[in-house]
Amino acid sequence: MNIQSALLTSALIGFVLFVGCHHPPSPSPGEKAVIEFERLYSSWQQECETIRFSSNTYDYIRLPSYREIVGMGKPALPSLERKMVENKGLDFMLAFAAVEICGWDRQEFRGGSEQEFRDRVLQKLRQK
Hints:
By secondary structure, this protein is mainly α. It has seven helices and no strands. The chain has helices at residues 3-21, 29-49, 57-61, 64-72, 77-86, 94-102, 114-127. The longest helix is centred in the N-terminal third of the chain and has 21 residues, at 29-49.
């Protein structure tokens, strides 16, 4: 083996070892919370389809994935706020999760429509 072949082989082995040992960084706790929230949110959307003819908000916020979102606790709040601001479909119902997570009294936000309830919750979240 000549010197040029030896250098090329050595460089190739070094590259393979570097690439083979390189692992992407683990997600931060905040990133993990966003990933988990998005997974649960997607599941909740699918569960909502099974009861789409219900006009009772409580039917939607009792669904298993919604309850798991609440179970995430405070790490879910940034994602909840983002979804409420985007305001697509049933996202206004996520205000109930924020109220429950924060331990606030629902009556404090009552009056008017469900969308007004969401708006009051968003306002209070932004004051924190």
